[in-house]
Specification:
The chain is built from five helices and nine strands; from the N terminus they run H-E-E-E-E-H-E-E-H-H-H-E-E-E. The protein is α+β, with helices and mostly antiparallel strands and 192 residues long. Helix 4 packs across helix 5. The structure holds flavin mononucleotide.
Length: 192
């Protein structure tokens, strides 16, 4: 069974899907380096577990290097059409290899090829060598499945604090925060 904040997030994701929100499962993922420098990027959540959020990433990227050095992370979803945001603080870790393979197999072909031909984040002179390698790879695979690259993985975020924020016409917005103490989830209201 889902924990209370995961159940709430699942409901809001379904609402965003039903409302036709663009990229409803995409969110800003924030890491902080060992030196305390923050960095943010968009990721797309692939799954919700009972008490965690999961997305996939190449493992040589800045985000993974930073979460290995400092597992404290934040996530922000915003669905403007619904006047809602969900803000999460938690701890990140790497998921297991079997799940990485399973989620990689669910990616579209272009996404799978990109993971093989591009070392995301590396400084390059031009896209041309990557485009050539992509075409070569398509020929080599000859219509067969694209294997999950070694440096591909799953990031798991276990939330410690989850805020559900909803706009109201009088600007006295509804803010409900779930926070965890000794494994138990608590709930409180915050001033808008
Ligand atoms: C809508 C959208 C969804 C994205 N989803 C992912 C994702 O699920 N995983 C990922 O690694 N990068 C994703 N990206 C690319 C990242 O934003 C980022 O460019 C990349 O992961 C490198 O980030 P880093 O160098 O900070 O690690 C997405 C970008 C956009 C715009």
């Amino acid at each position: 069974m889902d924990s209370p904040p995961i159940a709430g997030l699942r409901r809001w994701l379904v609402d965003a899907e039903n409302a036709g929100a663009p990229h409803p499962w995409s969110a800003i993922f924030v890491t902080v380096s060992a030196d305390g420098d923050p960095s943010a990027r968009t990721v797309t959540l692939k799954r919700l577990d009972r008490d965690s959020l999961l997305f996939t990433s190449a493992l040589w990227t800045r985000k993974v290097a930073e979460l290995r050095a400092n597992p404290k992370v934040a996530i922000a979803f915003h669905w403007p059409g619904l006047g809602r945001q969900t803000l999460i603080r938690g701890t990140a870790s790497e998921g297991d290899r079997r799940l990485a393979g399973e989620l990689f197999a669910e990616r579209g072909l272009d996404h799978q090829l990109q993971a093989h031909v591009s070392r995301q984040g590396q400084v390059i002179d031009s896209l041309e060598p990557l485009r050539r390698r992509r075409l070569e790879l398509i020929e080599e695979l000859d219509g067969g499945p694209v294997p999950c690259p070694d440096g591909w993985g799953v990031v798991r975020v276990d939330p410690e604090c989850v805020e559900f924020w909803e706009e109201t016409p009088d600007r006295l917005h509804d803010r409900i925060e779930h926070w965890r103490v000794d494994g138990e989830w608590n709930i409180r209201r915050l001033a808008p």
